[in-house]
Design a protein that fits this description.
Order of helices and strands: EHEHEHEHHEHEHEHHHEHEH
Strand content: 15-25%
Helix content: 40-55%
Distance between the termini: 7 Å
Structural class: alpha/beta
CATH topology: TIM Barrel
Length: 329
């Protein structure tokens, strides 16, 4: 099973954004050593628990800090940006790290409506043009714009002989259908929507039309906490349980530490909500996680599993990825 990492650069209570970014660099280096296939960074804006609003900047540093692992975005929120400018940024990354760069694109706002308007220069991002934008990004990168396109003669620099992989990301049938139509690899966000993704993935595979890719490639991304035992993983999950409750209550807070999570007294209603969110995650010891990921890969007919791990301390997050790499080779 091919394993990869999604990192949202979580900010743990009391530690701050600079520490979160430092820990992203450390985790990327360790993931490279452990043999993970790719390392993606997510774009979020004005969220107290997440430190990375501009993943393409941090990807440039990750490439220099690693040797083998693919680096990229999961993803750039394309409706905010021009297709041409996005193509230039990732052509530059490809020039720096040839054969190692991924451009994953999505259409979510990555924050609340007020923040989205601020990022969009006063306008809420209009996702209606998203299919055209994705097509233009690929055409700019590959030099395949039609002769009558108004930007055909605009040079996309730096002019290098290779191009990044382009992935379409999503948590619905819309994204799967678009990836199939454009002939792109598709990554389903199980950690956002744990229901029906297997059907979306199979529909993508069945309706795929060769384009930039000759055949479909499917990835599924899940939240995961792996520890030495199921009981220890459950203990570590307390921080993210409370974080999910904070999100539901619109509390813009950092990721709680285990100590903070232990102090929270859940009402029956809160406990029901928290447990309802567990479908997004795999939580357990190494063998439990391996069995769950193998089942998920089979259900999605996925070529690759991407794992997002957040805990109440950076050491246990690192250890989760280490344990997982030992049990899945």
């Amino acid at each position: 099973m091919r394993l990869s990492v999604l990192d949202q650069s979580p900010i743990i209570s009391g530690l701050g954004a600079r520490r979160a970014i430092e820990e992203t660099l450390k985790l990327a280096q360790r993931a490279d050593e452990l043999g993970y296939h790719r390392y993606w960074l997510a774009e979020h804006h004005a969220i107290g628990a997440l430190a990375d609003p501009c993943p393409e900047v941090l990807v440039a540093r990750l490439g220099a800090e690693t040797k083998r692992i693919r680096v990229g975005t999961g993803g750039v929120l394309l409706p905010y940006y021009s297709a041409f400018r996005t193509s230039e940024a990732f052509r530059m990354l490809e020039a720096l790290y040839p054969g190692r760069v991924d451009l994953g694109v999505g259409r979510a706002p990555g924050g609340d409506q007020l923040t989205a308007r601020a990022v969009g220069g006063g306008h809420f991002p209009d996702a209606r043009d998203f299919p055209e934008q994705v097509w233009q990004v690929c055409a700019h990168l590959d030099g395949t714009l039609p002769e009558d396109h108004p930007f055909k003669r605009v040079r996309v620099q730096p002019e290098v002989e290779t191009a990044p992989e382009v992935w379409l990301l999503g948590s619905s049938d819309y994204s799967g259908a678009l990836a199939a139509q454009l002939g792109l690899p598709f990554s389903f966000a199980h950690f956002i929507n744990p229901h029906g993704g297997d059907a979306v993935a199979r529909a993508y595979q069945e309706s795929f039309k060769p384009g930039r890719e000759k055949k479909p490639r499917t990835m599924v991304c899940t939240f995961l906490i792996c520890a030495k035992s199921d009981a220890e993983a459950e203990r570590l999950a307390a921080s993210i349980d409370l974080r999910r409750l904070h999100m539901a209550l619109n509390l813009d807070t950092p990721v709680p530490t285990l100590e903070e999570a232990a102090r929270h007294q859940y009402s029956a209603q809160e406990r029901r909500y928290v447990m309802s969110q567990r479908a997004r995650a795999v939580i357990g010891g190494p063998q439990t996680c391996r069995a769950a990921l193998e089942e998920m890969a089979s259900r999605y007919a996925a070529d690759e599993i991407m794992v997002l791990t957040i805990t109440g301390d950076y050491a246990s997050r690192m250890h989760s990825y280490e344990l997982l790499s030992e049990v899945i080779r």
